[in-house]
Amino acid sequence: MPELNLDDTISAISTPIGEAGIGIVRLSGKDALKIADKIFKSSDNKKPSSFKTYTIHYGWIVDEHRASSIEHRECGNKISKPEIIDEVILTIMRSPKTYTKEDIAEINCHSGIVPLKRILDLTLKNGARLAEPGEFTRRALINGRIDLIQAEAVLNIIQARTDKALAIGLNQLKGKLSQEIEAIRNFLLDIYAQIEATIDFPDEDIKEYNTSQLSNKIERIKIRIKKLLDSSSQGKILCNGIRVVIAGKPNVGKSSLLNILLRDSRAIVTDIPGTTRDTIEETANIKGIPVRLVDTAGIIEPRDLVEIEAVKKSHESINSADLVLLVLDASSKFNLEDNMIIQNLNGKKIICLVNKCDLNPNPNLRLIKKDLPKIKIIKISCLKNQGIAKLEEAICRDVWNGRVFAWDNVLVSNLRQIECLRNVFLSIEKVELATRNCCSIEIICEELKSALKYLDDILGKNISIDVLDTIFSKFCIGK
Are 157 and 171 in contact (CB under 8 A)? Predict the structure, then answer.
């Protein structure tokens, strides 16, 4: 990405393009209000640059360069009238109390590809530049309104697929995680400054660091960092979800199970074996966990090229699964086909589901238990919606390994932040080891400096342009 010019005024469509009630074109920068003056006509003929901050105004977006001539009734002279693009509501927000800490004009128009594109093009013709992905949030970061944790939280909120994932994003946006990281950083900075002072000013009357006190402080900070790292597995699951593959031979009810868990008729269900010839992926919300469900083809021995590819995709899905739901048929005997599928699940986490228990309430599970001695077996009926609640509970127990979490705690969910925290923890452990072995204070200082650098990376202090480019490339253009 080329280096961005922060003096530019940027513009973008900030809502998904499509037919809807409202669409928004957003302007941000020093010339945002001047551009609004050129294209917005209010009902009282006042200019946006004269409007007070946080005020909303009714009017029209007009194109002065595409005027039409009409004849005046009284004098007969032809007058030029600007083309009206759309009837709109204009919101004015003046710096510094805005999202970007710059002047912002938001044009609320009718949502549709034609009005949105015409208005966006008009802003660009009048001096704005098309925003890069995430550039509005990037300006909020650069201008000091938010730190990098909060910037990444914006993306978490946009991408949240469950209420709990949304809550994590909102907590991070409010600054709860930033406050904890900043507190850890300040604690380490005080230790570093005290030790560094004894090196830089040996002749001054500065109290030398005490090994026992340093060890106690390091132990306390290790506990705080470990608590954050322990929360990361929970945070990653709640934000990114888990991948659950539904496996089994043809016509055992895999697609029916997918539809029930999705609470939607997503997959075609028939009595014909082999109806599903490709993997189907959809996300379900199971007790606050985003579960990426994959319905696989149940074909064992492929008969043509299509089925060969289907079987290949099924194996790939199983290999990448966090959890496999093995579906068996209670109305038929456990046979060689079932056994072949089980062999392909070697080493995977499995929950075994015996479907169609409405047809056979007491299936013989002896052979299943022989092949899967330690696997949880649940009897279900997709037709009667029986046993599904037990299955959802079992998925949650498997995901959390029986642990109980406080959902309002400060959680780390971002992979970049987790990696930085791991590096902080490693540096702190090296400080602890160096202190225990009575190493030189120069070595201790270097490791403390390294830990501080990683904490700065989490907060976005002195972070490289390349890292920022990578982070903000994941954003949509209008955010």
Answer: no
DSSP 297: P
Residue owning tokens 């730190």: 147
Residue-level length of the chain: 479
Q: Is 190 exposed, middle or buried (0-12, 13-18, 19+ CB in 10 A)?
A: exposed
Prior bond of 96 cis (ω within 30°) = yes
DSSP bridge pairs for 285: 290
* Residue 76 identity: G
How many whole angstroms separate alpha carbon 211 and alpha carbon 436?
8
Instruction: Mark residue 139 as left, alpha or beta (left: phi above 0; alpha: psi -120 to 50; beta: remaining).
Output: alpha
**For 406-451, how does the pLDDT look when each residue is reduced to its tens digit (9 = 90+)?**
556 678 888 999 999 999 999 999 988 888 887 778 888 889 999 9
Residue where the block lists tokens 């043509």:
304
Helix, strand, coil percentages for the chain (3-state, nearest 5):
45, 20, 35
How many distinct helices (H) and strands (E) make up the chain?
Answer: 15, 13
Strands 78-93 and 55-71: antiparallel
- How do residues 90-108 score in pLDDT, each as one tens digit? 999 999 999 999 999 999 9
Q: How large is the angle between the packed helices 441-459 and 148-159, nearest 10 degrees?
A: 40
Beta bridge partners of 293: 244, 282
Whole-number Å distance between alpha carbons of 156 and 479: 12
Q: How far is CA 252 from CA 256, 321, 338, in A?
A: 9, 20, 10
State the pTM of this model: 0.79
d(CA 156, CA 201): 46
Helical pair 176-200 and 211-240, crossing angle rounded to 10 deg: 150
Residue 380's closest CA among 325, 319, 333, 341?
A: 325
What is the rounded CA–CA span in Å between residue 235 and residue 183? 20
Q: At what angle do helices 163-174 and 211-240 cross, to 10 degrees?
A: 140
